Structures are given as C-alpha cells and as structure tokens.
Amino acid sequence: MNAKKIKKLNKTWFGFALGMLLPIISFFAYYMYNLSINNQLSVKKFIDTLLNQEALIAVLSICLLPNLLLFFLFKKLDYWYAIKGVIATVIIYTLLVVVLKFI
C-alpha cells in the first residue's frame, strides 16, 4: 500500500470505531476462554457470574488494554486524528466503569 492510501485511515472515526470494537472483542475472547472451561455458560450467565463475584468492573478495565496497544500503534504511524478517536473511546469506557462501580 502506498503512503497516501495508508494515511486515509488517519481519521477520528476510524480510531473511534476500532477503539469501541477492540474492548468488545477482548470481552468475548475472555468469555470464550471461560466457555472452554465451562461448556454450559451463556453470555447472560457469564455476566451475572461476574456481577455476583464483583469482577465485572475489573474485567471491563482489563478489556481496555488492547486500546493501549492501538494507541501506541497509531502513535508510531503518526495517526494523530485516529488517536483522538481512541482516547474518546477510552473516556467513554472509563465513564461506564465509574458508573458501574458506584451503582
């Protein structure tokens, strides 16, 4: 790919979309890991178990770690507009974690 086509990805919406998608993918990867241990675990039952064990907030926080890797990748590529989108998603997910913590 030439540099002009690659720079087209330097958009705030692109960083926002990837920043929203990566934590969701991470959460379902964690769910699939737990599903391999317990074959009869539905998504609702999994979330209920996390809520009962008061682990949902910790799991959601850990699911944000791929955004850190995305941030550093975009920084290395000088995608400053995409970084803005990633930071916006981190703020949104952080607010979600804070709200869940105090409810």
How would you explain this protein's 3D organization?
This protein has 103 residues and is mostly helical. Helices cover 81% and strands 0% of the residues. The protein has one domain.
Give a topology summary:
Blueprint: H1 3-7, H2 12-37, H3 43-52, H4 56-62, H5 65-76, H6 80-102
Helix pairs in contact: 2-5, 2-6, 5-6
Short structural summary:
The chain has helices spanning 3-7, 12-37, 43-52, 56-62, 65-76, 80-102. By secondary structure, it is mostly helical. It starts with a helix and ends with a helix.
**Uncertain segments:** none
Number of domains: 1
Radius of gyration: 16 Å
**Category from helices, strands and their pairing:** mainly alpha
The major beta sheet can be summarized as: none
What's the overall geometry?
elongated
Share in helix: over 70%
Described by its quaternary structure, the protein is single chain
For the terminal residues, how far apart are their CA atoms? 48 Å
Average pLDDT reading = 90
